[in-house]
């Protein structure tokens, strides 16, 4: 297989593609973020439709490596993990890494649904009242549950990494989740941060890694914005958030 990769994702948002970008950056991989080129979005849309040689794809992100095209974020990361040395060699630990990544995918989907609780084809302004209800439940109950689980996984593994003894793609993904939730719900995250010291330390440690720090400071890192998954709407993040006592 060739040493370079082609990543296909929307060119103006971090979204689900960012989890793949972080792995490629930390792994020191040679890659092209195709849709950010002049004709890249058209190329991505063409590939989504498929061809005689390639089955149609449901949605980006997807990764092209040689003749192989792989979709679904967790699946892409499971493929990249061993090739970029971002997952342990042990088969059981690799399965646990995928388990964690799939759980993070659930969290990402729920975060998205805070601002689009009725339908993705409606504008946020068409469902703001419902979004306020959904966001209140998400911040009070779901964020503490998901992040509390990550904190427990870190504690179970010694406190520094989610699996194994060195950084893995799930550590990078946990960093992105914490960063995204902090952008979208700064007040909600402030209310829960005392419960997740190990997770916050993991976030800071990933951000300080040389390749990740260089990436975050570059124009390759698309800023968070209100077109992506993690969006900051002040009306969805009031200052009186109280995390659930049961989570």
The share of residues in helices is: 40-55%
Number of helices: 9
Sequence of secondary-structure elements? EHEHEEHHHHHHH
- What would the average pLDDT be, to the nearest integer? 95
CATH class category of the largest domain = Mainly Alpha
Q: Which overall shape is indicated by the principal axes computed on the Cα atoms?
A: globular
Q: What is the β-strand count? A: 4
Can you characterise this structure?
The chain has helices at 17-26, 40-49, 73-83, 91-115, 128-156, 169-184, 186-192, 197-208, 210-216, and strands at 4-8, 30-33, 62-65, 68-71. By secondary structure, the protein is α+β, with helices and mostly antiparallel strands. It folds into two domains: 4-83, Glutaredoxin (3-Layer(aba) Sandwich); 91-209 and 232-236, Glutathione S-transferase Yfyf (Class Pi), Chain A, domain 2 (Up-down Bundle). Strands 2-1-3-4 form a four-stranded mixed sheet, with helices on both faces. A hairpin with a 2-residue loop joins strand 3 and strand 4.
Record keyword descriptors for this entry.
single chain; 247 residues; alpha+beta; Glutaredoxin; 2 domains; four-stranded mixed beta sheet; 9 helices; 4 strands
């Amino acid at each position: 297989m060739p040493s370079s990769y082609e990543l296909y994702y929307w060119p103006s948002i971090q979204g689900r593609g960012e989890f793949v970008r972080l792995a490629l950056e930390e792994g020191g991989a040679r890659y092209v973020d195709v849709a950010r080129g002049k004709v890249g979005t058209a190329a991505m849309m063409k590939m989504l439709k498929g061809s005689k040689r390639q089955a149609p794809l449901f949605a980006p992100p997807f990764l092209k490596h040689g003749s192989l095209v792989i979709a679904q974020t967790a699946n892409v990361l499971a493929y990249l993990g061993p090739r970029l040395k971002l997952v342990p060699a042990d088969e059981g630990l690799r399965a646990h890494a995928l388990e964690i990544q799939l759980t993070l995918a659930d969290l990402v989907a729920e975060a998205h649904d805070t601002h689009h609780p009725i339908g993705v084809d409606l504008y946020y302004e068409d469902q703001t009242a419902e979004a306020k209800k959904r966001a209140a439940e998400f911040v009070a109950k779901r964020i503490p549950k998901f992040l509390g689980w990550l904190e427990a996984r870190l504690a179970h593994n010694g406190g520094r990494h989610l699996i194994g003894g060195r950084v893995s793609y799930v550590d990078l993904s946990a960093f992105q989740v914490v960063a995204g939730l902090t952008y979208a719900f700064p007040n909600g995250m402030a209310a829960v941060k005392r419960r997740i010291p190990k997770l916050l330390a993991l976030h800071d440690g990933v951000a300080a890694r040389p390749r990740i720090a260089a990436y975050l400071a570059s124009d390759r890192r698309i800023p968070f914005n209100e077109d992506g998954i993690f969006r900051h709407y002040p009306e969805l993040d009031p200052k009186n958030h109280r995390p659930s006592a049961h989570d």
